[in-house]
Structure prediction request, 353 residues.
Amino acid sequence: MRHGRTKFHAALLQWYDAEARDLPWRRTQDPYCIWLSEIMMQQTRIDQGTPYYERFLKRFPDLQTLAQATEEAVLKQWEGLGYYSRARNLYRTAQILTDQYHGRFPESPEVLQLLPGIGKYTAGAIASIAFGVPVPVLDGNIKRVLARLYALVESIDLPATDKRLWELAAATLNVKRPGDHNQAMMELGARVCIPAGPLCFSCPVQRHCRAFSASLQDTLPHRTPKKVVPHHEMVVAVIANQDAYLIGKRPSQGFLGGLWEFPGDRIQKTEGCEDALRRIGEEMLRLKVVPGGLVAVVRHAYTHFKVTLHVYRCTAVKRRICSDAHTEYRWVTPDSFDQYPFPAGHHKFLKLL
DNA sequence: AACCCGGGGAA
DNA sequence: TTCCCAGGGTT
Prediction:
């Protein structure tokens, strides 16, 4: 640190104490609330996640309430937030803490990290924020802040750089107020040391920043280029029987695990939409599906691929369905759609039914 | 080390 | 469009 660690700490916390956003989990010391906020904000912008946090806490105000709920009720509250393994792991951890930890959170980051969904970042965040344990955290914001403060030219997403950044986070930590320091570093990254066009003119630690003194603030940090994601064409079969539609529950592990959906599949190169719909009937559902009219064409982006959904209304002979594509099937009417957690892509055409 | 896992807002 | 977000888990 160029002008001394103590002055850096003082400048950072003075700024934080004056400028910190009034976020709901900053009004409490309850480790349950801190934990929930940390899980919910993983790879999620504060503005996007905060309404979910408020709603979730109303529905599941404490650990016991959460542990006694069903996984599907938890997923319903998580619906639309993405990365649904977070919700399933949250639910599992609630039960582990209830069954094996007397319903209390461990304070040690090493023990916290044994719980599902809690990695090095979240363990450090809970330990430092809820319990005052002097441990660092490293998230996307702090990576960028440290890369600029120390003018790191290596790509920040390389494992070796990640190790170096954790060391810098530890060396930079303010052990007097670790929770506030960690939050201040994230706050700085989110509001001042932003990815494009950092607001160095209003940065409280500008004189400690090597990137600024070298005019590198707009070129750092470096990042390795991302791979291009494939684009798939899919059909979705909205199979109607009277006023009910067939939906299936996806297997709990894996992509969109535990969510409900209309049956669908990739369109293969040799077939058209209607061929694919009939194939879904034969191979997935063991059901004779008769394709009807096109309901919608929906585009949606996931982490590692993009899809275009061709949604078709279909009819079928109602029979016993046997399939391993889903763990359960139900015929439901549109007025009960809101009982089921669906992927966000489905909500782009659900209201049309 | 590489890959998998969502969704949305800002530029 | 692309980028990136209070990351974690699996192989």
